[in-house]
Amino acid sequence: LIYSKPARNERTIINRALDRWGAFEYFKDKHFVVGKYDRGKKAFVFLVNEKLEQVASDLADPYSVGLAIGELGKKQFIPSIAGADLFARHGKRNEFYIIVSEKGEKLVLYGRDIMGDSITEASDNLAENELVIVLSRASDAIALGRTRFSGRLLFQKGKVTVSTITDAGYYLREEGQP
Amino acid sequence: LTLLFPRTAQSIDLSAEYGYDEWLVGRFIQYVPDIRDFLAKMEKAPVRYIRVNTLKTSIKDLAIRLQSKGFEFKSTSIPEVLAVKKASISLGATSEYLLGHYYIQDLSSCIAVEALDIKPNQMVLDMAAAPGGKTTFMAQKMQNSGIIIAMESNGRRARSMSFNLARCGVYNTCILKTNAVQAADKLEIKFDRVLLDAPCSCEGVIARDPTRKRSHKPEDVDYCSKIQDNMIESAINHVRPGGILVYSTCSFAPEENEMVVDRILKDYSSVSVEPIPYGINGLVKFGDLSFADEMIDTRRLYPHLHDTTGFFIARLRVN
User: Fold this and answer.
1) CB contact under 8 A, A63 and B176
2) Does A163 touch chain B (CB under 8 A)?
């Protein structure tokens, strides 16, 4: 990864995502670096503090810098589970969230998709193919998902209504992998 | 290098009774207080501890959540660290663990971080950092301010550390996948605090891995001691004047502990040992070897005395 400060268009995409999850106010004074790999085709956004931002570019070939909060595409920012956690913790939590039951939480933490039966609450007016942060009953961000249905159809029983993109169990499942 | 002692009736009997190679028990007899209690304690499962990650939750909130799931805890000498009295399920299987609300970590490891006396905004070097337990505790003490440079040469362990840092919400840390001695020598930064939790022969965790009673050999101590000598010398050169180096191992062997620190004190007149309020005094004598009087201020932690894994900690001030 090669780290640098976000370019203007990259910062715009990041800000749009922060705004989407109501976390812009909290993050507006925070510092980010963008780590690029695969000849700049892929990029991750890392939350850093001001001191680390200053030092990051001087260090030879760091393995990682700060906290990876999401992947940056050409038009979209997709939060990592660490990013989702920060957004849920510091955001307004009024849009693009769903809450799942205890049973749903256990399944999500194994990386399973989410059945409509498991969803107890959802933000108003969610559309199909929308990125959502999945919260537990205790309001912890346990996953990032993508809706397969819109509105009330998210609650339909016996069907997967939200695909799990990443979840908090990921760290444990992947930790020992080569 | 590793000191071996003549066989005695006591060393032969105890090694047979507890299943150790005789040479190891022969050495323990020389410096471990209450040797029978020690060997008996090593037969028991060690006390388990969790360290609350205050970057994500509070001690009170976590305790309430885990108590509602059937866990019971006891407080320890470090407020963030709780001893587990009862666990209804595996400590690594709760959603709170996956969410980084706590880290499963022995009290001794947390004491090593306490000894660093870390403050927010400092520059910290962690020379053998994986899997990141002490690094995440340091980040928590710094409230994600300042900078931690965490080094780990093994790619798999560096990856594992990056997951642990992410799980715990750490964003003041840079991981360098590199040999700590070579990389540190290239770094032009001086640090307020340096932690060298050195690779060691792991005698202190025999209770967790009883195969070490027989697989552990004197050559292991020799091998580790040489690595530790190189690492501590590199570490000391990266402490800014007035800064602190904490040297620790999870080994009982004086060759990996007092002897390593003693050599540094002889070579660097600017370095002194500072006491910390945990454990018992380090050794000033071992067999026919004598160490600097200051070594009394280094600390040893024993399972039968402190309910931790075996540990050695030296806090060195560079003046």
Assistant:
1) yes
2) no
